[in-house]
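Hi there. Long-time user, first ticket. I'm pasting a complex I've been working with (about 798 residues overall). I'd like to know whether the download I got is complete or cut off, because the file seemed smaller than I expected. Thanks.
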Amino acid sequence: MACIDEILGRFPQIKRNALIPLLQAVQDEFGYISEESIEKIGAHLSLPTSKVYGLATFYNQFTFSPRGVYHITICNGSSCHLEGSGELVKEIGKLLEIGDGETTRDGLFSLEVQSCIGACGAAPVMAVNGTYYAGITVREVREIIKNYREDASRS
Amino acid sequence: MLPDHEFLIKLAQTDDGDLSEKEKDRLAFLGRERLDRPLVMVNSSTSGLVAGARETWEAIENYARERSLEIELRETGSIGLISEEPVISVQIPGRTRVFFRKVTAEKVAVLLDDLFHDVISDPLVIGQIRHEQQESWSDLPYLDQIPFFSKQLRIVMGSCGIIDPFSLEEYMARGGYRAFLRVIRYHTFREVCEIVNESGLRGRSGGGFPTGEKWKVALDTPSDQKYLICNAEESDPGAFMDRTLMEGDPYRLLEGISIAAYAIGSNRAYIYIRSEYNDSVRRINHAIQQLRKVGLLGDNILDSGYNLQISLRKGPGAFVCGEETALIASLEGRRGMPSSKPPYPAVTGYLNRPTVVNNVETLCNLPGIIRDGPGWFRELGPEDCPGTKIFSISGRVRITGVVEVPMGTNLNTIVNGISGGVKKGRKLKAVHVGGPAGCMIPRKLLDIPVSYEDLKKEGFVMGSGGIVVMDDKSCVVDMVRFFTDYSDKQSCGKCIPCREGTRRMAEILEGITRKPPDEEKDTSLERFRGVMQLENLAAVMKDTSLCGLGQNAANPLLSSLKYFRQEYEEHIFDRRCPSNTCGELRSWFIDSDLCTGCSICARRCPADAIIGTPRHPYFIVQEKCTGCGICYDVCKFTAVYYK
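Hi, the file is complete. Here it is re-exported in full:
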């Protein structure tokens, strides 16, 4: 895994418009943006830490806690909503006690609610680490989470 | 440069002159009209992957390997039939291409076995593509005879799902890049603006501003550098037209961008794309590399003296960045907050230089306009708004998908004709057009033509083009709450009417769709007061918000209040949701046949609304029930149900 300085090295020009690509590179590499990286990015671009943090929190893409081993994405497009994706988010909130952009304490699961992934024919859609589950119900979500938990405890 | 590219570029530069037989042959092979081995194409776009296209792909690979068959396996985009994925198409040398639907991995072997023995598996087939030089399959409908396709006019989407998005040769062999090369050889900047102006093309992102006019402003503003930005930040929930275009035909978009950049005299273009669109990014990046390699991008393109660089920027995710000034702010590395217009970006935009922001669909229209002329384009739709429009249809319809129709086609044709109407036994209630900024259109108004002007006359807006169909089992109030909630979360917070207005609106709607734990405090009074103020609040937001997000955030609410007032009243006064969608307004019951009397629901009920004696069926006291649904969740015998 590359360290922050290596990523900063990829952006030699000190320009404001490098800020978002930089944050994205950090997010892609580490899966989240740590306090340390925000400080370093600020120093690199000669921007106050508050500005960097302010910008990062404005956008949906950036998260500030590490992703879980199993990253759950739920589509919240209008079609998925119509078919009950809100219930799925609620269910996961109940089961794992996390909301959008959060990670469970044991670091096993994290949740991300996306605005539309464009598979409306299969609504509601949920994905865990890139494996898609189409047309699922609340009961099935419980099963899926249970299975992943068992997988984790086995390995 | 490969000899094929040299040949294709030379061909694109000459006007449709006479081709020798040999050249025609070569072109047919490059355009995959003629083949030397069977071709199988799998839709590998997001919709396909969700339905299992990757497994289908592997199954086809295995099939060919096991039988040592020489086949060409290629990725393609979506043909628009989202609910029928995974869609694959097969073309056997000399015969027409046949499309199949719902080809999951286990169906591959049977399907291909049959096909190579000249038999078509009936339940899976969609149809064949009409082609004069290819032998057609007998007793098989052509795609243009199927209701989903016959009522469409596919021009911009014409190649989606048919060509390989990774192949520049195929795009060029089918006439691609002819328009751009003609433009840089024969036309001045101003002439291109004139052509597009004459065609009457209007921006497809919702506002409907004439594209040529916007370009002229940028062209006429003197500057050392000008920018063209392609707005591919499609974050409207339920809209996936741009994605389909980018995944299906990325070269068309890049050609459109090149033409637009040339027209405003810019040699720097950006594509601002939603970060979740990984598949589009992959295709566009590949396409840019290819174009650079063959010299259709870069410095001094084919010795014309025109330079152009296109780069991709991933948008970090904010709905408001669909607004052009916010998008520019985001590109500059600031928060995506809109600024007041004027000055328009065409005068001072990205890095204070003249900047034109065009939507993906708008740009994809350009190659056609240049190639076939503005006159051809003008005939495609109504006088004031020519051309076609792409819609994504989702929700409670038989076929969800992406469709392209002439502007001014009525909703009835789109929803009932193309998409097959609502599912069996249900009744269509409303059609929501245009996402969070859009409008709820009731069934009785479905025959209004969809164009900017006609919708405006009825007090609706076009929005981006996402259509969500609702049947009698879906709740209008809940849908409006969803969109308002979305606007609230995505409001950038710069201007007060939007920041506060969307929040209050979301709160009021939340109050309507939820049962408070006790009605004794002021909650019901607050609810009624809020409801009375809703329309007033919406009007203020419309008048005073800075950008389109705030101005249009109340559209779903206002249009639905106008036509579905009764449904709101049922929620407010009777405290029930007629379609049982609003979870907390549901009435819960216990099926006495299934209940074993384990008492877990009674113990967990936060309102003490469940009574009974152990080992006998329990009972829910409706007056006490808050509708939280915990009993449903904890019941191990599925005895709890709602109606």
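A couple of notes from our side: The first helix of chain A runs from residue 4 to 9. The radius of gyration of chain A is 18 Å.
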